From TrEMBL:
Keyword Manganese annotated: yes
Protein name listed in UniProt: Protein phosphatase
Organism: Aspergillus turcosus
Residue ranges of the TM segments: none
Record GO terms (molecular function): metal ion binding; protein serine/threonine phosphatase activity
Length: 489
């Protein structure tokens, strides 16, 4: 005789270890497969900030344009601790943090005597500076290897790329970010080979803000975008309410993007794609990991970005309206607000086992029975193109002679006592319940099924809703038939 527990165990093996079967006290019958519920839960609290840490002696650009920046991060799980020699031991000073919490650890990460640029978000790494932004997505499968460390690979690659970009920060001629990436790739290989070998691979996307002169000799912002893999850059023009530019994902096959690192045949010179985008002031540049665009369609990203900008500009706000942040008083937090709204929307779909998502759509096209969002490291970096001399009362941190980043951090610490020295905002202790990562985040624009499945009339997938429903019904029927045949249920 087949018991309830035996059938439940077999069913769980058929589906996935992430699925659990609902039970009731009034019935001992097996619940239909359609009522199985995945338990998604992010392992790390969301975090956000303006720029990533830089050393005190940092080369500030004298270019006529810069980014007004913000980022928001949420990791699927904490990354592995960085091994020596990358993690320096704490000093004997009582002011030096002894905790191994990832934010404190980031302050002590160094390679060859240099502070490692950027921040880790699980296996992702992000870079946020006045004139460049970037997101690397380390391949999490390396966590199963004894010496696998995807977070180290993604962080070192973006660090060495940043060093290359900083060396030519004031170069007036044409830049070559692909060559920066090639040299960063070679440096990462050397750093992870000696004295100990660390394995890993990562995808990468970077956006470097430069300038060019028009026919009248006036400077115009120019964006260099370098992409390899499935992280993406989107350029949004709010004045026209459209996506001006998007990178194209690069794949070997489904769920296996092009990547740099151990045993990979991909290289920057051969496979990286360089794009040049003419910007206007106030254009929005988004650099995101696949954890965003596996859960949100592009038109949703556009809508959320435009609505966030409008909501911020209309202000003022009460503290409850800002959800995860203290009240905002400075213009720089505008981009933090946009990044946070995108993160919340992506996280809500990622935690919903019944949501319809781009990742689900791709899986169905490959013949895979995938439903719901995809829980992954979610990294959002936002930069707004602006002039180097912003209007009075707005400090964008672009003061090469006075240390713009240091001054900006000082201003923020005055406004927000919870601001850390590395540029991250820490939520007040009384609001830690806002960081509970159960599926509780609400996004009114995405709350109805009609908006989740909205497609253009001329789209080749305009019949997608009925197609998804039919696929789901067929899958449920096949599961029921298989259980009946095997177990007589």
């Amino acid at each position: 005789m087949v018991t309830q527990n035996t059938v439940t165990t077999i069913l769980l093996m058929i589906r996935s270890p992430q699925w659990t079967a609902a039970r009731t006290t009034s019935s001992r019958r097996l619940i239909r497969p359609s009522t199985l519920v995945r338990q998604y839960r992010a392992a790390v609290w969301p975090s956000y900030g303006i720029t990533t840490p830089v050393p005190d002696r940092y080369p500030h650009s004298k270019a006529p344009f810069c980014f007004q920046t913000g980022y928001a991060l949420c990791a699927k799980r904490p990354s592995r601790p960085f091994p020596p020699p990358f993690l320096s031991p704490p000093s004997s000073s009582f002011s030096d943090p002894l905790t191994t919490h990832y934010q404190s650890q980031d302050k002590r990460l160094s390679v060859r005597g240099e502070l490692i640029r950027g921040l880790n978000n699980g296996d992702d790494a992000v870079l946020v500076a006045d004139n460049f932004i970037g997101v690397n997505d380390g391949v999490g499968a390396w966590a199963t290897k004894e010496r696998g460390h995807a977070a180290l690979w993604s962080r070192l690659l973006i660090h060495f790329w940043a060093l290359e970009a900083e060396r030519e920060v004031d170069k007036t001629s044409k830049l070559d970010p692909v060559e920066y990436l090639q040299r960063a790739y070679e440096e990462t290989i050397r750093a992870t080979t000696s004295p100990n070998e660390w394995l890993g691979t990562t995808t990468t996307v970077t956006a470097l803000l430069h300038f060019t002169d028009d026919n009248a000799g006036n400077a115009k912002p120019l964006l260099y975008v370098t992409n390899l893999g499935d992280c993406k850059v989107l350029v949004i023009r709010p004045s026209e309410e459209r996506v001006l530019f998007r990178t194209t994902e690069q794949w070997h096959w489904f769920d296996c993007p092009m990547q740099l690192g151990t045993n990979s045949m991909d290289t920057p010179r051969k496979d990286a794609v360089l794009s040049e985008v003419q910007l206007e002031e106030d254009d929005i540049v988004l650099a995101v990991s696949d954890g965003v665009l596996d859960n949100l369609w592009e038109h949703e990203v556009l809508t959320i970005t435009l609505d966030s900008l409008k909501k911020w500009d209309e202000g003022p706000y009460e503290e409850k309206d800002l959800d995860w942040a203290p009240p905002a008083h400075l213009a720089d937090e505008r981009m933090v607000f946009v990044a946070r709204e995108l993160l919340k929307a992506a996280l809500a779909i990622a935690q919903d086992p019944f949501a319809e998502s781009p990742y689900m759509e791709k899986g169905i096209e490959e013949g895979l029975a995938i439903e719901g969002g995809k829980m992954d490291d979610i990294s959002v970096v936002v930069g707004a193109s602006t002039g180097a001399n912003p209007p009075s009362g707005h400090d964008h941190g672009f003061e090469p002679l006075q240390g713009g980043q240091s001054r900006r951090r000082a201003l923020y610490q005055q406004a927000h006592p919870a601001l850390q020295s590395d540029g991250q905002l820490v939520p007040p202790a009384s609001r830690l319940d806002m960081f509970d990562t159960r599926p509780s985040f609400k996004c009114p624009r995405l709350s109805t099924r009609e908006k989740r499945i909205r497609v253009d009339v001329d789209s080749p997938n305009s019949n997608r809703p009925s197609f998804l429903n039919a696929t789901r019904s067929r899958y449920s029927a096949l599961m029921s038939q298989m259980l009946s045949q095997r177990f007589g249920l």
